[in-house]
Write a structure and sequence with these properties.
This protein is mainly α. The chain has a single domain, classed as Orthogonal Bundle (Cytochrome Bc1 Complex, Chain D, domain 2). The protein is 48% helix and 3% strand. The chain contains 7 helices and 2 strands, in the order αβααααααβ. The protein has a two-stranded parallel ribbon.
Length: 152
């Protein structure tokens, strides 16, 4: 009898958890920020932000507005609302979201490097400092850069 109770108490929840549907969404960082770079560490170059601005105008501004302020169904890409939504996530999360959902009328047409350049422009628009080197589009490297809304 005790084995049956043990099986019900321990095993059944594990089976239920394994069968539960999983949603595809960004997850908050569980690694301490001190072990990662942050957007405050000058992770993009001014030239890259300039390329990103041109791409933003071409692919993004019609929905997210020239100001990056968003409109209608398009969320803002700069300012407190944007930073509140993305604080604690990584640039890989942001990159994946853009690459797999934008532009909404022709998803996936924008090259990985162009998406990275647009992110550099978004970082500039949000007041994060530029550095000497470009942000790279490598997923593993982007996973190591946390979006942190306030300066550490």
């Amino acid at each position: 009898m005790h084995r049956l109770v043990l099986a019900v108490v321990v095993v059944l929840p594990l089976i239920s958890a394994a069968r539960a549907p999983r949603t595809r969404s960004a997850t908050r960082l569980v690694v301490p920020h001190s072990s990662l770079s942050t957007v405050w560490d000058s992770v993009y170059s001014p030239a890259q932000a300039g390329r990103g601005e041109s791409a933003y105008v071409k692919f993004c501004a019609r929905c997210h507005q020239a100001s990056l302020g968003g409109a209608d169904q398009s969320p803002p890409l700069a300012g407190p609302a944007f930073l509140g939504n993305w604080n604690g996530l990584t640039l890989a999360d942001l990159h994946d979201r853009i690459r797999t959902t934008m532009p909404s009328d022709s998803i996936g047409i924008v090259d990985r490097q162009v998406v990275t350049d647009v992110i550099a422009y978004m970082l500039k628009a949000n007041g994060f400092p530029a550095g000497a080197t470009d942000l790279v589009s490598d997923g593993d490297r982007l996973k190591a850069i946390a979006i942190q809304s306030s300066r550490p």
